[in-house]
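Write out the 3D structure for:
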Amino acid sequence: MDLEYIDGCRGRGLSRKGCNIGHYCQLNTYDYLADIPNNDQLTDIVEVQFKNTRKGYYHNINNLSLDKGDIVAVEANPGHDIGTVTLTGKLALLQMKKANLKSMDEVRNIYRKAKPVDMEKYAEAKEREHDTMIRSRQIAKDLGLEMKIGDVEYQGDGNKAIFYYIADGRVDYRQLIKVLAEAFRVRIEMKQIGARQEAGRIGGFGPCGRELCCASWMKSFVSVNTGAARFQDLSLNPQKLAGQCAKLKCCMNYEVDQYVEAGRKLPSREMVLQTQDAEFYLFKADILSGMVTYSSDRRLAANLTTITAERAMAIIAMNKEGEKPASLQAEGVVQESGVVDLATQDDMNRFDKKKKKKKNKSKGENRQAAPSADSAQNEKETPSAEEHPNTAQPRRQKGQRNGNRKDGDRKPRRERKDNTSQNDKPQETGQA
């Protein structure tokens, strides 16, 4: 039976080689020693991965030809388990030392490559995991135990089940094991994990758009504190700094060393720069670029000036000697405004939907020309149809005569009144 049809990996575009057993495959293990000749013959240690993040190291005592992605049956207690080969050769031995295995006696053996019968038993055992987890949560709740069962993993032959749980303190689960053994008829093993391990077993994607580090490549978790956020000048917002495990994000430790090293070159926040005109206080700093911005007011952003960290350190040295420069900028240097207002780069209404103009209902209506100044004044004086609906006349269409009026009944045109007033006429004088 092909592994692609068991785990649904074909639907995610994953090939059979390099795919792991389990719905969340870890494909980020890179064997950089694979091109070395006779690398597999240096050691018989093989790294095998099971569901999600669980891995183990085994002896290839039968000298099987194993490649990355092969499905093998390995020794378990009791019975056997089914897993996927992820590393072979010298790199697998190095990874085993990193796992802090105390003795080689803990390393078990690989039996064989998985047969179709082994894969059928494995598929049957995996189908029971979800129902077992839901039922075991209800049993733990009925017993009044303060714990959360986050995942259940069946062994490849179905004779053993591992229950992963989360608890704040120590839990007495002896009664729980008895009830679970009677309910599922398998051997029970309880493992307590933390919030980060639970997120790695469940899997998912982070705000960066990539697969969670704890679910892809990270195996050892280092404590993360808020000091890493302060060194990187991040906002201490728990909602932004916390990951899916409700703990501080592990990626905060990735670049903190570079920020600490770059921060040593910046001036202290308590240092005040004195010039001949005023005193300047540190407003903000760009750690990686080495640029600092100073304000003439301690609390407000006033007269902001951006200079390099080297220039700030030089001014501090001058102030200690009793000298004050004319300005923060060096002579002959013009400050460039690095502040860019994104709102002014484009129209803010560019995403709004434009309203379509309503078309005229009657196609035969004439389009009125733009009114002149005289006609606009006459329109103000004459009442509109809305003000006097009874006196309004319907508009005639082009080429249509008034059927109620005859040609002989036309009213004569009114004579144009003389708009000139008597005061405007020239006055007669008595002089010749």
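The longest strand covers residues 80-88.
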